[in-house]
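Per reviewer request, we include the raw input and output of the structure prediction for the construct analysed in the revised manuscript.
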Amino acid sequence: MSLRPSTPRRMLPALALTCLTAPALALTLALPAHAATPTASTASTVSVARADASFPTWGTRWVVHATSDINSPSVGMINQNSAGQDRITADYQVDTGRRVCEGSACSTFMAHITAPVTGFLTVVAVDIPEDRLPGVPVQNEPPGGGSQTGSRQRTLERAATWLTANGGRPVPYSQSAYWRDGYRQDCSGYASMALGLPTPGTNTVGLTNRNITRPISMGELQPGDLVIDAIGNSNTRHVVIFERWTDDAHTSYLAYEQRGGPGTTHRTLTYGLNAGSEYRAHRPVQYGD
């Protein structure tokens, strides 16, 4: 990779990635090491208006997290295929007080980025000589802090991103391909992405695991819940993300869906509402209700 004296962070080694050996296995990423002892914030943290700014990046396979906690679930990655492949757009940053280092570069700041993936990225991944983003507001975590990972609204916001992520078009369906955020492009990979689960996502049966969801009645469905058919094989199992009922009688509902042919869709469905249906309603435990 080319070197520039004004950007010493380019001198640092690229991050390593453990090889993915099968689609069902979790993707293991090497993250920047934490300091043994958290470092106190050196900059005052205030709530200010957000402002967008664009920055270059360095290295490969930097994880973008669901919250400003470096241990929170992955929502994707940048520079997935090559060093400096992506530029990031940040609207604010958070001083976490926890130092992240890679080589000689360290920072306690996590930037909230809106492109190419929405989430939190350590400032160490940005190709600048500073330990914080210049000109980007520093503010407190949004209300709820880390619980934003498990908010219903956040799930629906993530689900909507795939409707236009493919150059303004839906992400195409595939049981073997992975989208640039690291998630598998089938229905369960899509639902995993919307929930902020680790890449590349679990399968449909895995989404019914009690550590991820719990069964509820169809009448209890609320925004962000899942409707799952976990019976049969990979060609018959399916999952959709419930948004809202279309009428008071609960005869149909709007949902986000990743399916063969059109890819990501947002449409009216009746899965699980007819007698004898194999679809069941499930509530992600991360919502806490």
